[in-house]
Automatic annotation (TrEMBL):
The family this protein is said to belong to: Belongs to the monovalent cation:proton antiporter 1 (CPA1) transporter (TC 2.A.36) family.
Transmembrane segments: 50-67, 79-102, 108-131, 158-176, 182-203, 210-227, 233-250, 262-281, 301-319, 340-363, 375-397
Membrane topology: Multi-pass membrane protein
Name of the molecule in the record: Na+/H+ antiporter
Protein purpose: Na(+)/H(+) antiporter that extrudes sodium in exchange for external protons.
UniProt keyword terms in alphabetical order: Antiport, Cell membrane, Ion transport, Membrane, Sodium, Sodium transport, Transmembrane, Transmembrane helix, Transport
Organism of derivation: Kitasatospora cystarginea
Compartments (UniProt record): Cell membrane
Domain called Cation/H+ exchanger transmembrane: residue spans: 12-401
Chief localization: membrane
InterPro entries (alphabetical): Cation/H_exchanger_CPA1, Cation/H_exchanger_CPA1_bac, Cation/H_exchanger_TM
Length: 528
C-alpha cells in the first residue's frame, strides 16, 4: 500500500468519523486523533512522512482564515486587555517552563528544549474553534478564547525562530534581537494582511461573479501567507489579519448569492481539512516514535509530564490574571468567580499550529550535522497535542456545564426572535412610507397589490418570531413584490448591522440572521 493510498483512505475515514461526531454531538478533533492513532498503529500501514511545509503552506492558511473570519473587530476591541496578557505573558512563561521541564527530564539540550517550549507555547486556533463550535459560551468568553488562540501565534513564532537559530547556529539570544524579530514578524505580518485585505476588498467591490469571488476567497489566505513569508514576516499573522478584516466587512463587498456560495465552499473545505489534519496528528505519532534513538524511549512518561506542565502553567497564569481583572472591576469585592478562568484554562488545547512548527524544524545544523533530538521533539509535540486534544476535548463540555456559564438554548432563541421582530418592525415602518413614493409609479398597477403582499409577509415574519407555528405566504411573488421585498431586505440588513454595532446583539446572532436574509434575497434573485 502506497503513502498516497493511505492518505486517501485516511481522508475517507476522517470524513466518516467527523460526520459521526457531529451526529452524536461528540468532539470531532478528539475522535479524529484517536482514529489516526489506531490507523498508525496497524502493522500493515506504511509510514507516512509529511514534508515539512505541507501543513504550514497547504493546510494551515485556509483553516486560519476561516477561524479568523468568525472573529469580529468589535469583539476584539472588547477583550484586548486580558488577551494581551495571554498573548505575551502566558506564551513566554509557557515556553520557558516547558523548556525547563523538558531539559530536566529528557535528553534534550537547552537549545532543543527551548524549541519544544516555543512550539507548545501557543494554543491552536483550529482546534479551539473546532471544539468551541459545540459549546454555547457567552460571546465575551468565546471572543477571548478565539482571540487568544489566533494572536498568540506571532509571539510563539518569534520564540520558535530564536530557539531554532540558537540550536542551528549556536548564536546567543539577545533581548534586542528578539524584540526586533517580533516587530518584523508580527508587525510586518499585520501590515501585509491588512494590505491584502484592502486589495481584495477593492476587487470584490467591482465584481458580482460568484465563481470569480469564490476563487478570490480561496486564494486570499494563500496570498497573504506566501507574500508575508517571502518578505520575512509572519505568514500566520498576515492570514489572521486579512481573515478578521474581510470577515467583518464581507457583508458590504458582495451580494447575498455570492456570500452564500463562499460560505458553502469554505464550510466544505474547512470540514475536509480539519478532518484530515486531526487524523494526521494521530497518524504522525507512531511514525515519529519509529525514529527515536535508544536514550529517547522514555517518551511515554515524558509526554504526560509535559502535557500536565502546559496545563498547569496555564491555570497558574489565568486564575491570578482573572482575579486581578475581577478585583479591579468590582472595586475590591472579594467574591471572585472561578467559572470563566476555569473554562479559559481548559480551552487551551494544542493542535495544528504546533504540529506545523515541529515539522518545520531544520534537519541539520549550520555545520551539516543532524540536528540532535529532532525526532524526540516531534514525538513529544505530537504526543502532547494528541493528549490535550483527546483529554481536554472530551472534558471541555462537562467543565463548561459545571461552570454554569453556558448559554441556554432558550437564551439564544429569545435573542434571535427579539432581533427578527425588531428588524421586521423597522422594515414595516419603512414600507408604510414606501407606498407614498413616486418611484413606485413605474411598477405599474401591481404596486398596490405588491405592497399589500409585502406587508402581509412582514407581519407574518413578526408573528413567526412570537409563535413557532408559522407558514409562509403561499402566493408566488410578482416582479413588483420582489423589487419591494429586496428593498426591505436591505433595510432589515442595515438595521441588523446597526443593532450589532450598538452592541445590542451577539456576533453569532448577527451571522445567523444575516444568512437567513441572504437566503431569501438569493431566492428572489433566482426568480428574476
Amino acid at each position: 500500500m502506497t503513502g498516497l493510498t493511505v492518505i486517501l483512505l485516511l481522508v475517507v475515514l476522517a470524513t466518516a468519523v467527523a460526520t459521526g461526531a457531529r451526529r452524536w454531538s461528540l468532539p470531532a478533533p478528539s475522535l479524529l486523533v484517536i482514529a489516526g492513532l489506531v490507523v498508525g498503529l496497524m502493522p500493515w500501514v506504511p509510514e507516512v512522512r509529511l514534508p515539512p511545509h505541507v501543513i504550514s503552506v497547504l493546510v494551515l492558511p485556509p483553516l486560519l482564515y476561516a477561524a479568523a473570519g468568525e472573529m469580529s473587530v468589535r469583539d476584539l476591541r472588547s477583550v484586548w486587555r486580558p488577551v494581551t496578557g495571554l498573548v505575551f505573558g502566558l506564551v513566554l512563561a509557557s515556553a520557558v517552563v516547558v523548556g525547563y521541564v523538558a531539559r530536566a527530564i529528557t535528553p534534550l539540550t537547552t537549545a532543543t528544549a527551548l524549541i519544544l517550549g516555543a512550539v507548545l507555547a501557543s494554543t491552536d486556533p483550529v482546534a479551539v474553534t473546532a471544539l468551541g463550535r459545540r459549546l454555547s459560551l457567552p460571546p465575551r468568553v468565546q471572543a477571548m478564547v478565539q482571540a487568544e488562540s489566533l494572536f498568540n501565534d506571532a509571539t510563539s513564532l518569534v520564540l520558535y525562530k530564536v530557539a531554532v537559530a540558537t540550536a542551528v547556529s549556536g548564536s546567543a539570544i539577545t533581548v534586542s534581537g528578539t524584540v526586533e524579530q517580533f516587530l518584523i514578524l508580527a508587525g510586518g505580518g499585520a501590515l501585509i494582511g491588512a494590505a491584502v485585505a484592502a486589495v481584495v476588498t477593492l476587487i470584490r467591490r467591482r465584481t458580482e461573479d460568484p465563481v470569480l469571488e469564490t476563487v478570490i476567497a480561496l486564494v486570499t489566505p494563500y496570498a497573504s501567507y506566501v507574500i508575508a513569508e517571502d518578505l520575512h514576516a509572519s505568514g500566520v499573522t498576515a492570514v489572521i489579519v486579512s481573515g478578521v478584516v474581510l470577515g467583518s466587512t464581507g457583508h458590504k463587498v458582495s451580494n447575498a448569492p455570492v456570500r452564500l456560495q463562499i460560505h458553502a465552499v469554505y464550510d466544505t473545505v474547512t470540514f475536509l481539512l480539519e478532518s484530515a489534519v486531526f487524523a494526521l496528528i494521530g497518524l504522525e505519532l507512531p511514525s515519529a516514535v519509529r525514529h527515536l534513538t535508544h536514550d529517547e524511549h522514555g517518551w511515554p512518561l515524558w509526554v504526560p509530564v509535559i502535557a500536565f506542565t502546559v496545563l498547569a502553567i496555564r491555570l497558574l497564569w489565568i486564575f491570578p490574571l482573572s482575579a486581578l481583572i475581577q478585583y479591579r472591576q468590582k472595586e475590591g469585592d472579594s467574591r471572585l468567580s472561578w467559572r470563566v478562568p476555569a473554562v479559559l484554562s481548559w480551552a487551551g488545547t494544542r493542535g495544528v499550529m504546533p504540529l506545523a512548527a515541529a515539522l518545520s524544524i531544520p534537519l541539520v545544523t549550520h555545520t551539516g550535522a543532524p540536528l540532535p533530538h529532532r525526532a524526540l521533539i516531534l514525538t513529544l509535540t505530537t504526543g502532547t497535542i494528541a493528549l490535550t486534544v483527546v483529554f481536554q476535548g472530551f472534558t471541555l463540555a462537562p467543565v463548561v456545564r459545571r461552570s454554569g456559564i453556558a448559554l441556554e438554548p432558550e437564551h439564544t432563541a429569545r435573542e434571535e426572535a427579539r432581533t427578527r421582530r425588531h428588524i421586521a418592525h423597522t422594515a414595516l415602518e419603512e414600507l408604510k412610507q414606501l407606498g407614498d413614493l413616486d418611484e413606485l409609479a413605474e411598477l405599474g398597477a401591481a404596486a398596490e397589490t405588491a405592497l399589500k403582499q409585502a406587508r402581509r409577509h412582514l407581519e407574518a415574519r413578526i408573528h413567526q418570531a412570537e409563535d413557532a407555528h408559522y407558514s409562509d405566504p403561499d402566493a408566488r411573488p410578482a416582479d413588483a413584490y420582489r423589487e419591494i421585498r429586496r428593498t426591505l431586505i436591505g433595510i432589515e440588513a442595515a438595521e441588523l448591522q446597526r443593532l450589532y454595532e450598538a452592541n445590542m446583539i451577539s456576533n453569532a446572532t448577527r451571522r445567523r440572521i444575516q444568512r437567513e436574509l441572504d437566503l431569501e434575497e438569493a431566492s428572489l434573485r433566482a426568480r428574476d
